[in-house]
Amino acid sequence: MNFDAVVFDMDGVIFDSEKKVVECWQVVAEKYNIEEIEEACSACLGLNREATKEYFLGRYGEDFPYEEYKTEMSNLFHERYGNGKIPVKQGVQEILDSLRKNGKKVALATSTRKAVVVDELKAAGLYDFFDAIVCGDMVDKSKPAPDIFLRACECLGVNPDDAFAIEDSYNGVRSACGAGMRTIKVPDLAPATVEMRGLAEVVLPNLCEVMEYLGLER
Fold it and tell me: What is the pTM of this model?
Protein backbone atom coordinates (compact mmCIF):
# COMPACT_ATOMS: atom_id res chain seq x y z
CA MET A 1 0.00 0.00 0.00
CA ASN A 2 1.42 3.39 -0.99
CA PHE A 3 1.58 6.04 1.73
CA ASP A 4 4.21 8.38 3.13
CA ALA A 5 3.21 8.84 6.75
CA VAL A 6 0.93 7.88 9.61
CA VAL A 7 -0.44 10.43 12.08
CA PHE A 8 -1.70 9.04 15.38
CA ASP A 9 -4.08 10.44 17.92
CA MET A 10 -2.82 9.79 21.46
CA ASP A 11 -5.57 9.21 24.04
CA GLY A 12 -7.52 6.09 23.16
CA VAL A 13 -5.08 5.16 20.36
CA ILE A 14 -1.59 5.17 21.86
CA PHE A 15 -2.62 5.14 25.52
CA ASP A 16 -5.56 3.38 27.13
CA SER A 17 -6.21 6.63 28.96
CA GLU A 18 -9.75 7.66 28.09
CA LYS A 19 -11.33 5.04 30.33
CA LYS A 20 -9.04 6.18 33.15
CA VAL A 21 -10.05 9.81 32.71
CA VAL A 22 -13.74 8.86 32.86
CA GLU A 23 -13.01 6.77 35.96
CA CYS A 24 -11.47 9.79 37.69
CA TRP A 25 -14.29 12.07 36.60
CA GLN A 26 -16.75 9.58 38.08
CA VAL A 27 -15.05 9.93 41.47
CA VAL A 28 -15.33 13.72 41.31
CA ALA A 29 -18.92 13.52 40.04
CA GLU A 30 -19.98 11.29 42.91
CA LYS A 31 -18.39 13.66 45.41
CA TYR A 32 -20.12 16.77 44.03
CA ASN A 33 -23.32 15.19 42.67
CA ILE A 34 -22.57 15.96 39.02
CA GLU A 35 -25.14 14.19 36.86
CA GLU A 36 -24.48 12.25 33.64
CA ILE A 37 -20.72 12.73 33.75
CA GLU A 38 -20.15 9.78 31.41
CA GLU A 39 -22.22 11.48 28.70
CA ALA A 40 -20.29 14.72 29.20
CA CYS A 41 -16.96 12.92 28.92
CA SER A 42 -18.10 11.11 25.78
CA ALA A 43 -19.14 14.37 24.12
CA CYS A 44 -15.70 15.86 24.82
CA LEU A 45 -13.62 13.06 23.33
CA GLY A 46 -11.05 14.62 21.01
CA LEU A 47 -11.67 18.20 22.14
CA ASN A 48 -8.94 20.43 23.53
CA ARG A 49 -8.92 22.02 26.98
CA GLU A 50 -10.79 25.20 25.97
CA ALA A 51 -13.48 23.41 23.95
CA THR A 52 -14.02 20.92 26.77
CA LYS A 53 -14.49 23.70 29.30
CA GLU A 54 -16.94 25.44 26.97
CA TYR A 55 -18.94 22.23 26.65
CA PHE A 56 -19.08 21.65 30.42
CA LEU A 57 -20.22 25.23 31.09
CA GLY A 58 -22.85 24.92 28.39
CA ARG A 59 -24.10 21.67 29.87
CA TYR A 60 -23.94 22.45 33.58
CA GLY A 61 -24.23 26.25 33.64
CA GLU A 62 -21.87 29.21 33.60
CA ASP A 63 -21.42 29.03 37.38
CA PHE A 64 -20.18 25.42 37.20
CA PRO A 65 -16.72 25.39 38.88
CA TYR A 66 -15.10 23.55 36.00
CA GLU A 67 -11.51 24.52 36.71
CA GLU A 68 -11.78 23.41 40.34
CA TYR A 69 -13.30 20.04 39.44
CA LYS A 70 -10.95 19.52 36.48
CA THR A 71 -7.93 20.15 38.71
CA GLU A 72 -9.22 17.65 41.26
CA MET A 73 -9.81 15.08 38.51
CA SER A 74 -6.35 15.70 37.02
CA ASN A 75 -4.64 15.34 40.39
CA LEU A 76 -6.42 12.02 40.94
CA PHE A 77 -5.48 10.85 37.44
CA HIS A 78 -1.79 11.65 37.93
CA GLU A 79 -1.84 10.07 41.38
CA ARG A 80 -3.18 6.84 39.91
CA TYR A 81 -1.59 6.80 36.47
CA GLY A 82 1.33 9.24 36.43
CA ASN A 83 5.01 8.35 36.09
CA GLY A 84 4.51 5.90 33.24
CA LYS A 85 1.57 3.99 34.70
CA ILE A 86 -0.89 4.76 31.88
CA PRO A 87 -1.45 1.48 30.00
CA VAL A 88 -0.26 1.44 26.38
CA LYS A 89 -2.73 0.08 23.83
CA GLN A 90 -2.22 -3.28 22.15
CA GLY A 91 0.13 -3.15 19.16
CA VAL A 92 1.62 0.32 19.76
CA GLN A 93 5.24 -0.75 20.03
CA GLU A 94 4.91 -3.12 17.09
CA ILE A 95 3.39 -0.62 14.68
CA LEU A 96 5.81 2.16 15.61
CA ASP A 97 8.78 -0.19 15.19
CA SER A 98 7.49 -1.37 11.81
CA LEU A 99 6.81 2.14 10.50
CA ARG A 100 10.36 3.13 11.40
CA LYS A 101 11.82 0.04 9.71
CA ASN A 102 9.79 0.78 6.58
CA GLY A 103 10.98 4.38 6.41
CA LYS A 104 7.55 5.93 7.00
CA LYS A 105 7.18 9.28 8.72
CA VAL A 106 5.24 9.31 11.99
CA ALA A 107 3.47 12.14 13.80
CA LEU A 108 1.18 12.65 16.75
CA ALA A 109 -1.88 14.93 16.55
CA THR A 110 -3.51 15.19 19.96
CA SER A 111 -5.81 17.67 21.66
CA THR A 112 -3.87 17.23 24.91
CA ARG A 113 -1.49 20.01 25.99
CA LYS A 114 2.14 19.68 24.86
CA ALA A 115 3.67 19.56 28.35
CA VAL A 116 1.47 16.61 29.30
CA VAL A 117 2.05 14.85 25.96
CA VAL A 118 5.84 15.04 26.20
CA ASP A 119 5.86 13.77 29.78
CA GLU A 120 3.58 10.83 29.01
CA LEU A 121 5.41 9.79 25.83
CA LYS A 122 8.81 9.97 27.51
CA ALA A 123 7.58 8.01 30.53
CA ALA A 124 6.35 5.26 28.17
CA GLY A 125 9.57 5.28 26.12
CA LEU A 126 7.72 6.33 22.95
CA TYR A 127 8.78 9.94 22.44
CA ASP A 128 11.61 9.26 19.98
CA PHE A 129 9.35 7.38 17.56
CA PHE A 130 7.62 10.59 16.45
CA ASP A 131 9.04 12.88 13.78
CA ALA A 132 6.52 15.59 14.67
CA ILE A 133 4.17 16.24 17.59
CA VAL A 134 1.26 18.67 17.29
CA CYS A 135 -0.81 19.33 20.41
CA GLY A 136 -4.05 21.05 21.30
CA ASP A 137 -2.35 24.20 22.55
CA MET A 138 -0.40 24.58 19.28
CA VAL A 139 -3.39 25.27 16.98
CA ASP A 140 -6.21 27.81 17.08
CA LYS A 141 -9.09 25.43 16.40
CA SER A 142 -9.74 22.16 18.18
CA LYS A 143 -10.91 18.94 16.59
CA PRO A 144 -13.29 18.45 14.75
CA ALA A 145 -11.68 21.30 12.77
CA PRO A 146 -8.92 19.89 10.51
CA ASP A 147 -6.20 22.29 11.72
CA ILE A 148 -4.26 19.89 13.91
CA PHE A 149 -3.93 17.21 11.21
CA LEU A 150 -3.07 19.75 8.55
CA ARG A 151 -0.30 21.09 10.80
CA ALA A 152 1.01 17.58 11.43
CA CYS A 153 1.22 16.86 7.70
CA GLU A 154 2.90 20.21 7.13
CA CYS A 155 5.49 19.43 9.81
CA LEU A 156 6.19 16.07 8.17
CA GLY A 157 6.37 17.59 4.70
CA VAL A 158 3.72 15.25 3.26
CA ASN A 159 0.43 15.77 1.46
CA PRO A 160 -2.59 14.87 3.60
CA ASP A 161 -3.91 12.46 0.96
CA ASP A 162 -0.61 10.55 1.14
CA ALA A 163 -0.95 10.00 4.89
CA PHE A 164 -3.09 7.85 7.14
CA ALA A 165 -4.68 9.14 10.33
CA ILE A 166 -5.42 6.72 13.18
CA GLU A 167 -8.27 7.96 15.36
CA ASP A 168 -10.72 6.62 17.93
CA SER A 169 -13.07 9.55 18.63
CA TYR A 170 -15.83 10.98 16.48
CA ASN A 171 -14.31 14.47 16.61
CA GLY A 172 -10.93 13.04 15.65
CA VAL A 173 -12.29 11.16 12.64
CA ARG A 174 -14.14 14.30 11.50
CA SER A 175 -10.94 16.31 11.89
CA ALA A 176 -8.73 13.90 9.94
CA CYS A 177 -11.28 13.46 7.15
CA GLY A 178 -11.69 17.22 6.95
CA ALA A 179 -7.94 17.47 6.41
CA GLY A 180 -8.23 15.10 3.46
CA MET A 181 -6.40 12.20 5.09
CA ARG A 182 -7.05 8.49 4.71
CA THR A 183 -8.61 7.82 8.08
CA ILE A 184 -8.71 4.58 10.05
CA LYS A 185 -11.02 4.47 13.05
CA VAL A 186 -9.96 2.19 15.88
CA PRO A 187 -12.85 2.41 18.38
CA ASP A 188 -12.16 2.85 22.08
CA LEU A 189 -15.00 4.45 24.07
CA ALA A 190 -16.80 5.62 20.92
CA PRO A 191 -18.25 2.78 18.81
CA ALA A 192 -18.39 3.00 15.03
CA THR A 193 -21.61 4.71 13.99
CA VAL A 194 -23.08 4.95 10.51
CA GLU A 195 -21.48 8.39 10.18
CA MET A 196 -18.07 7.08 11.20
CA ARG A 197 -18.20 4.14 8.79
CA GLY A 198 -19.08 6.57 6.05
CA LEU A 199 -16.20 8.92 6.84
CA ALA A 200 -13.43 6.47 7.66
CA GLU A 201 -11.71 4.40 5.01
CA VAL A 202 -11.97 1.42 7.34
CA VAL A 203 -12.87 0.57 10.94
CA LEU A 204 -10.49 -1.87 12.63
CA PRO A 205 -10.53 -3.30 16.17
CA ASN A 206 -6.90 -2.68 17.15
CA LEU A 207 -3.48 -1.55 15.94
CA CYS A 208 -2.41 -5.08 15.09
CA GLU A 209 -5.19 -5.15 12.49
CA VAL A 210 -4.07 -1.71 11.31
CA MET A 211 -0.58 -3.12 10.69
CA GLU A 212 -2.02 -5.85 8.50
CA TYR A 213 -4.20 -3.36 6.63
CA LEU A 214 -1.17 -1.16 5.90
CA GLY A 215 0.88 -4.14 4.81
CA LEU A 216 3.45 -3.75 7.59
CA GLU A 217 5.44 -6.69 8.88
CA ARG A 218 5.48 -7.39 12.60
Answer: 0.93
